[in-house]
Amino acid sequence: MSSLLTTLIIGVSLSMDAFSLALVYGTTEIDRKNKALLAIIVGLFHFFMPLIGLYFGSLITRYLIINVGVLVAIIFGVIGGEMIVSGVKGREEKLLVSLVGFLLFGFSVSIDSLTTGIGLNVINSNYLQVATIFALISGWFTYFGLHLGNKLSLKFGNYATIIGGIILIILGIYY
User: Packing angle between helix 3-26 and helix 32-63, nearest 10 degrees?
Assistant: First the structure.
């Protein structure tokens, strides 16, 4: 599988959480300006979090002798499993009412990008390209989720999270 295709697939799977939560928040009829702001915030988090994870991942792999492919597989498996569990259980989220709420939303849906960044050098060596792809995909998914939120059920959002988790587990097995 090419590194660009792998990056795109990972970007989509990491964005499923943002999409599913945006579906929930979209039901609150967030205005167009706030939809764009939230999408930008999520995109920025998805840009910086993998780079931060890459930095800490290089520290970990420098001092621990571990096969990075195995580490990536474990991380993807854990993240994917958590996404599936949260999708099956469902969530009750508080309404976004402020910039602080938007930042917390962005951080919470981007934490998996941080852990993915730990194994980023195995996925693709062009880190800025990967971070940019993650940012663009997650920003678009967030905006699209907010836009469709009042038309789609909360249950569909849970299925999107489950699908994202399954994709991450499959990629973990691949690595």
Answer: 140
| Block residue for tokens 């599936």 | 84
What are the start-end ranges of the H helices in the chain?
A: 3-26, 32-63, 68-89, 99-118, 120-123, 127-148, 154-174
Kindly report the CA angle at 35 between 34 and 37, in degrees rounded to 5? 60
* pTM recorded for the entire structure: 0.70
R_g of the chain, CA atoms, integer Å: 16
Task: Report the distance separating Cα 19 and Cα 84, nearest Å.
Answer: 14
First and final C-alpha spacing in the chain: 11
Which amino acid type is present at position 134? F
Tens digits of per-residue pLDDT, 10-52? Answer: 899 889 888 877 876 776 667 889 999 999 999 999 999 999 9
Distance between CA atoms of 154 and 3, rounded to whole angstroms? 33
